[in-house]
Design a protein that fits this description.
With 277 residues, this protein is of the alpha/beta class. It contains 12 helices and 5 strands. The longest helix is centred in the middle third of the chain and has 26 residues, at 139-164. The two termini are 26 Å apart. Residues 1-20 form the signal peptide.
């Protein structure tokens, strides 16, 4: 009974019933918004170094993130351009050898799709020892690896939108089985996690729709509260947090995903040789 109540509380702590954000909500503009988009393009036409940045899809995301406040959107985007250049986000980072981080069990996949065709970022943390990365002074490299993964995921969202036109955001599942305060929530770990979270919020606006956190232990939910002030309301409204009650989170995942799109560890039929059941 105690476990049931705990899982119920975990599920309700952040989970708000939401239908998710549709491509129509993101990409359908009013007349005034369309005029602002044209102004945005005019201001930035000589400042955007890559073709994908000059698409309506990309620019609308920054306007959405700024509630169509033109000056604010321009400020955010220009700050992001500098960051991407400084971090080598459009060249070097995607060609680096990341096998050292992969071998530390920091693994993910992007080959799943939900029932609407939205790409799925799936991240199990069961064997990741983040504390060891911090102690060995590799936290910065891990942070770059996370940036690379997020950039890969959000680039895939744009690619699928340009190809099919039916999706504007991705999905994410983080399997928190194995999370503990020693390896993941240590005092020296927390600033890095907060920095990675704020980096995601700052540099990939409106990229993820629904995000599922499963097998979340109670200490994690307390840590999640720390991230709330750094989190847009929209993200929190589409965040689904579940404890260890597999029946509960499997039932929820089945609403969004067909079995062949989920790992067997998530109740699906897809197998990965790097996921230990």
């Amino acid at each position: 009974m105690a476990n049931f109540l705990r899982d119920a509380l975990l599920c309700c702590a952040f989970y708000l019933v939401a239908n998710g954000i549709t491509v129509e909500q993101d990409m359908t503009l009013t007349n005034s918004q369309a005029k602002i988009l044209e102004q945005f393009k005019s201001r930035l036409q000589d400042k955007l170094p890559h073709a994908y940045m000059r698409t309506d899809f990309y620019l609308i995301k920054w306007l959405l993130d700024s509630n169509y406040q033109l000056d604010l959107a321009e400020e955010k985007l220009l700050r992001n351009l500098k960051w991407r250049k400084d971090e080598g986000m459009d060249d070097g980072i995607h060609y680096e050898d990341w096998s050292d981080i992969w071998d530390e069990e920091a693994r993910y996949s992007l080959d799943g799709r939900d029932k609407q065709g939205r790409p799925l970022l799936y991240v199990p943390i069961k064997h990741l020892d983040f504390r060891s990365l911090v102690i060995s002074q590799r936290a910065e490299r891990f942070h770059r690896y996370v940036n690379k993964a997020m950039d890969e995921a959000c680039s895939l969202v744009q690619e699928l939108y340009e190809k099919h036109g039916n999706i504007s955001r991705g999905m994410a599942i983080f399997d928190l089985e194995g999370f503990n305060l020693v390896q993941h929530g240590c005092f020296r770990c927390l600033p890095h996690f907060i920095r990675m979270w704020t980096s995601f919020v700052d540099h990939w606006p409106k990229c993820v729709g629904d995000m599922f956190l499963i097998n979340a232990p109670e200490p994690f939910v307390h840590l999640l509260n720390i991230a709330k002030p750094f989190s847009p309301k929209e993200i929190l409204e589409n965040l689904h947090v579940f404890g260890s009650n597999k029946n509960a989170w499997k039932a929820e995942l089945r609403k969004y995903f067909d079995p062949e799109q989920l790992s067997t560890s998530l109740g699906g039929t897809k197998t990965y040789d790097w996921v230990e059941e």
